[in-house]
Design goal:
The protein has two helices and eleven strands; from the N terminus they run E-H-E-H-E-E-E-E-E-E-E-E-E. 22% of the residues are buried. The chain is mainly beta. The chain folds into two domains: 99 residues; 38 residues, no CATH class. Helix 2 links the parallel strand 2 and strand 3. Bound molecules: zinc ion (ZN). The site of zinc ion has 5 residues, from loops.
């Protein structure tokens, strides 16, 4: 359902159960961010996870060297603080670490804002309230619960302090 993605925050420090081939085939991430700590007791990042990512051509950025598999310089870099930036409607995004800035094209064109102009209202399917789409609370609604519309939803009330 998600489709292709550009930036993948690799699950659970690249443990051996992070990712699987079906998921990588469907999402085809360009880059992966691996949050991992030096000297961790769990052997992260693992060979299993990294080899899966490499087989799917995912370039990875690690926060630290970790305590698992060695990095493969063809795919992996220990980058420290990793800053991913993209402007609305841009056709590329950048990954910055230290003084290095790398640019990647956005797969499928550009990142469109999640709510189009037709979607004036947004709500969680689990909540009794709805919001104007620009309300900051909308950002906190998890994607699987988020619903939008050009008219208010039946049976829900407007969030008390919702901005208009
Ligand atoms: Zn609101």
């Amino acid at each position: 359902m998600v489709g292709h993605i550009n930036v993948y925050q690799v699950h659970h420090h690249c443990s051996k159960y992070s990712t699987n081939d079906n998921w990588l085939n469907d999402t085809q991430p360009q880059i992966g961010i691996v949050s991992v700590g030096d000297g961790n007791r769990y052997g992260h990042p693992t060979a299993e996870c990294l080899e899966r990512l490499h087989q799917h051509n995912v370039k990875t950025y690690w926060t630290e060297t970790g305590n698992g598999f060695d990095l493969d310089p063809e795919f992996d870099v220990v980058a420290g603080n990793i800053i991913v930036e993209v402007a609305p409607n841009a056709t590329s995004y950048t990954v910055r670490h230290g003084s290095v800035v790398e640019s990647y094209p956005i797969a499928g064109g550009s990142v469109t804002p999640p709510l189009g102009p037709a979607a004036q209202y947004a709500w969680s399917k689990k909540s009794k309230v709805y919001h104007f789409a620009n309300c900051k609370y909308v950002e906190n609604i998890s994607p699987e619960n988020l619903q939008t519309g050009s008219t208010p939803p039946a049976g829900k009330i407007l969030h008390k302090d919702c901005p208009k």
